Amino acid sequence: MQKLTAAYLLWHDFLNQLPRLTRYSLGAKIDSLFTETLELVLSARYASKDGKLTLINKAVVKFDALKFFLQILWQSKALDNKKYLRLSEALAEIGKIMGGWKKLF
After folding, report:
1. How does DSSP classify residue 104?
2. How far is it, in rounded angstroms, from Cα 62 to Cα 39?
3. What is the pLDDT of residues 30-40, one digit of tens each?
4. In this structure, which long-range contacts are made by residues 26-29, counting pairs with CB atoms below 8 Å and at least 24 apart in sequence?
5. Rounded to the nearest 10 degrees, what angle do helices 26-46 and 49-75 cross at?
6. What is the SS3 assignment for 47?
7. pTM of the entire structure?
8. H helix runs in the chain, sequence order
9. How far apart, in whole angstroms, are the C-alpha atoms of residue 23 and residue 78?
10. Residue 66 · residue 33 · CB < 8 Å
11. What is the CATH number of the domain that holds 89?
12. N or C: more exposed end of the chain, with fewer CB within 10 A?
C-alpha cells in the first residue's frame, strides 16, 4: 500500500505538468485508475479471506490498465522519458508485489 501511494504521489506531481488537453483526457483516466487501484488494495486489506482474492484480481486488472494507458501517454510524448522511467520502475516493483499477493490466495 505504501509503495502504491508513493507511486500515486509521484504521478500526481507529473499530472500537473502535462499539457492541458492531455491532463484532462488521458491524464484523468490514469489518475482514476490509480485511485481505483488504491481503493481496491485498501479494501482487500480489510476483506475476509474469501473476498481478498476477488479484490486483488480486480486491483490487478486496474493496475494493468493503468500501466497500459501510462505507456500510451509516454508514446504520445506527453510524458518525457525520465518521468516515465521513474514511474515504470515504481510500478514494476508494485506489480511484483501484487503478483505475490495473488499467489498467496
Report:
1. H
2. 11
3. 999 999 999 99
4. 26/69, 26/72, 26/73, 26/76, 26/78, 27/73, 27/78, 29/69
5. 160
6. coil
7. 0.90
8. 2-15, 20-23, 26-46, 49-75, 81-104
9. 9
10. yes
11. 1.20.1440.60
12. N
